[in-house]
Design goal:
The protein is of the alpha+beta class. It is 32% helix and 20% strand. It has five helices and six strands, in the order E-E-E-E-E-H-H-E-H-H-H. The strands form two sheets. A three-stranded antiparallel β-sheet has the order 1-3-4. Strand 3 and strand 4 form a beta hairpin. Helix 4 runs antiparallel to helix 5. The two termini are 22 Å apart.
Length: 161
């Protein structure tokens, strides 16, 4: 949510829709565009958060509580769990992704590579990265870390409104 800033609208797959692992299953509209977010597993959408459709800013204010998007029943839970990261593997992947994101954000905000988390004057906290640098570069970062690749755009027939 820090990458995309304020969420203006959300489009969710409908209950009963089939989603494919790694394909877009919901979309968010934000200050500099729209992104399709990936399904972590293949399965059927069992439930959606209808409240999120009316109050999309819940993603910003309470993403792990009231801002949840949908419940997906995996087609094969055993197969899905084999492909998902957990434990030590999850921690290593997360650390690598965080470092990659930091490198990308340095380029977007045009900070010198040796500047760390704080500047001598204390720096300033950037709540919304969409106002902190080159929009074209930021779109590439958003796509790299959050979105369906540009070559794999959502079909209008995959269950989204």
């Amino acid at each position: 949510q820090k990458l995309v800033g304020r969420i203006y609208a959300v489009r969710l797959a409908q209950p009963g829709a089939e989603v494919s692992e790694g394909s877009g299953c919901w979309e968010v509209v934000h200050r500099i565009g729209e992104i399709s977010l990936l399904a972590p597993v293949a399965g059927i959408v069992e439930e959606i958060n209808g409240r999120l459709l009316q109050l999309p800013s819940l993603v910003n204010h309470d993403p792990y509580g009231q801002g949840w998007a949908m419940v997906i029943q995996p087609k094969s839970l055993v197969a899905a769990l084999k492909r998902l990261y957990y434990g030590q593997k999850s921690e290593c992947w997360f650390a690598e992704e965080i470092e990659a994101l930091r490198r990308e954000l340095r380029a977007v905000t045009e900070l010198p590579p040796d500047v760390g988390a704080t500047l001598q004057d204390g720096g300033r906290l950037v709540e919304d990265l969409t106002s902190a640098g080159d929009v074209t570069r930021l779109r590439r970062v958003i796509n790299r870390f959050l979105s369906v690749s540009s070559s794999d755009q959502l079909d209008s027939g995959k269950g989204l409104d």
